Amino acid sequence: MEKNDGCKRYVTEIVKGLLKYQKELECPWELEFLVEGRIYSAEELNIFFSAPSKSLTKPEPKQSLFKRARQVVKKVSYKMLTEDHYKALEGWQYRVKLRKRNLTSKYNKLKTLLSPSKQKYSLVHLTLPLSPRFIDSEGTKFLTTIHDFTHKYYPQFHIKENIVNSEKGIEFSQRNNSWWIAISDSTKKDLQKFCQVEEEKIFTIYEAADHKRFNTQVSSSDKIFMRNKYNIPLDAKYILSLSTLEPRKNIHNTIRAFSELTQELKDPNLYLVISGRMGWMMEELLNDNGIKSDKIIFTGFVSEKDLPIIYSDALALSYVSFYEGFGLPPLEAMSSGTPVIYGNNSSQIEIIGDSGIGAEAHSVDSIKTAMKKIITDDNFRMGMQSKARTRAAQFSWEKCVEETIEAYKKVLAV
Question: Whole-prediction pTM value?
C-alpha cells in the first residue's frame, strides 16, 4: 500500500479533500468512488479508513444480497479514527464519481453496490486517463485529469503496455467529450498539441507538497536513525536522487555526472544516494559495473515517514528528468528547504524556476556543474534553501481540491 507515486498521491489528496468537503461543508452532491471494480460511498470510505486492517477489495462474485447488506451494516458500526488512516488509499487506482443528491431507498442503495455498471451519474472524474469500466456513460459528463504525455515524447522509455493503456484512456475521454484537468501549463499545452482540446475545456490545477510533513524541524536523532536504516554513513554529505527508477528520470546521466565530480573534488565524504522503487527498463543500469561505486548508495524504496528526513538531510535533490508533467519530489524537497537540481525542460521550469538550478538533461557536464555549485558554494546553497521554501509555499493541496471542486461546478453547470 505504501509504495506510492506522484499520480497515486494526487488521487489520495483529492479524495481526502472531497471527503472533508462532504463531511464539513454543504456539499450539493452525493460522492461515490470506484475502487477496483466496486463503488463505495464517501461514508463507506471514511469507515474503511477507521479500520486499518481492512483493505478495499472486490466483493465475492457469488455473495448473496443478504450477506452484502450485512457487510454494509457492519461497516457503519466502525468508529472513525485519525487522518493517518487515509494511507489506506495509497497504492489504489480509483476514480471519483458524483451523483446529484436524492432520496433513494435503502434497496436502491444496495442495488448500486450490486450493479454499478447500471448507475447514472451527472459527472465522472477520471483521476487517471485509464479506460474505465463499470460506467454507463449515456448522459454522463466526464472530467479527466491528464498528468503527462511522456509516452508521446519518449515512447522508447516505456513498455508497450504503458503506451497502449495511455492511448486507450485518452481516446475514451475524447470519445466522451471530456473536460480536462491539466496539472501544469506545460501539460495543458501538450494536451492541446496532441489532442486538439479547446482551451475553454481545460482547467490548469497544480499539485502540491504536504507542508505539514515537509516543512518541519527534523531532529538529529531522526537523521541518525534514517542513515542507519538506509546504510548511509553518518559522516556522509550526500546528493539525493529520489523517484521511481525508470529511464525518463535520467538516473544514468545523474550517476555519470556525480562520478566525474567525485574524481574532480576528491572528497571522501561525498555520496550520491539513489532512492525509489524499481520501475521498468532499468536492468541495464543496475547491471552496469561502471556504477558499482562505494560512493553510490541504492536505498530502494523510502517509506513515507522517512521522506521528510531524507530530503532535509541532503545537500540537494538531483531530479534532472527528461520530461515531467509536474514532478512532486522537487516540490517536497523544496518545502523541506532542500535545493533542487532539475531538468531544464517541460513543467520543471514552470514549477521550480529560479528557486532551483536548471541543468540540461542530456548533458552530463551541465548536471555536474550544477552539483558542484551546490556542494562547494555554501552561501549559494543557503540562498537556494530559502528561495525553495518560499516557492513551495505557493502550492497547496487545499487549493488543488478547492479548484477541482470549482471545476466540477463549472462542468455540471454547462
Answer: 0.81
